[in-house]
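Before going further, learn to read the protein records used in this course. Taken together, the tokens spell out the fold as the letters spell out the chain. A record is reproduced here so that you can trace the correspondence yourselves:

***
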Amino acid sequence: MAAEMFTFIKDIFVPKASKRAPLRTVVLIFAVVCGLYIFSICIKQQTNIFRQPNPLQIQVIDRRNRACRNTQIEEEDIPYVHFPKPEAFSRQECVCNPVRYFVIVSMQRSGSGWFETLLNSHINLSSNGEIFGAQERRNNVSVIYKTLDKVYNLDWFSSASKNECSAAVGFKWMLNQGLMKYHEEIGEYFKRRGVNIIFLFRRNLLRRMVSLFANAYDKEAKLLNGTHKSHVHSPHEAQVLAAYKPTLNTTVLVSHLRGTEQMVTKALKWFKSTRHIVLYYEDILTNRTKLVEVQDFLKLPRRNLTSLQVKIHRGPISGQISNFHDVQKTLKGTSYENFLNTDYKL
């Protein structure tokens, strides 16, 4: 009986040799190999899911401080939101406060100084002045990039710097301070770094010309007690500076106005692909809701913006040019004739 039982068990677990045995073995091996291959692929895909975020998540992490990933930022704002890490100081409790970069693009005597004081009255904004007025900061693109990096990293210090808790940081840049010369490289930098442009120009280019000549004269004459001032803070100081009435060269007047107009047009064209807003000095004077638009543009909480600066040249332009009648004859019939009569109440 025991022998029979042993024979039965042997028949079950020890397959008998047959011609079909090699075929079954090959099929079994193939099935095992396929199973292991499929299993390895599944494991690899599962691992990638946990290790590799989607493209949007990659962008968020690169743009933002890893410690601030819970900060609520709309998807469309991601390219324009930054978390700088200054080398000179720590942002401390404001480390997770997002910062927006901006630049005020303008021309001399277009109200940019007054406009910048308005912006700097906002507790969360720092505009650092005309930093490229110094020639050595714009000798070449590399130097310009280095200066821009320092400003936007919050390592540029001026009287306007809010340091740790700035929500918007920038400066003002005149068209003739390297901006037009290196416009392609600078435009690429603005888009790469997510810089917002605030264009500020003056509609009445004739009044701007009067202001240019008057300011140049005061640099030499120093009418205010031997001190030159581009901007004043009292009606008396404004009256002293406005007493000078320049004589304009009517021979080149039209060509000069046309050249200024063309420069503005080129700037708007060359930087049109960068996120921007266009403002005019006269519009801000007559409509303070423009300042609300600027704050909304920079995604800042709305504040009442103020400035202590006093306007220098007031009243009709006929009283501000010594040879006004010659200027009037020169501009009559041209596209600039309206400069003689507009905004005289400002």
